[in-house]
Amino acid sequence: MSTDTVPSITVEELAQKLRSLDQFVLLDVRETWELDLARLADIRLEVLPLSRLAHEGLDALPPAAKSPATEMYVLCHQGVRSAQIAGWLKSRGWNRVFSVAGGIDEYARKIDRSVGMY
Length: 118
Fold this sequence. Notes:
Elements: E1 8-9, H1 11-19, E2 25-28, H2 32-35, E3 45-47, H3 50-56, E4 72-75, H4 80-91, E5 97-100, H5 103-110
């Protein structure tokens, strides 16, 4: 799947969203071992490793992300997996899903190094 048509947001836009009281889902699709190295802390964060999503499909989505009307931002290490998952969800009817360009790596470099880097 081409990721150039997948809607995305910058890490600066994500930081602004995280400071807001807006309702959305921040879906982190990194594997569990990656979370030990770098992690955002936010009540809207839902962790769904790509390996689980690949195995279980849409059934693996957390309750907060089940509705195609959900505003959702998909996060991974550098933005590749998140773009793939955002595109996959978009192709299945989610119309408010965005990939976080650059992933948590860029977020740590540009916004908050305390989240960790690897």
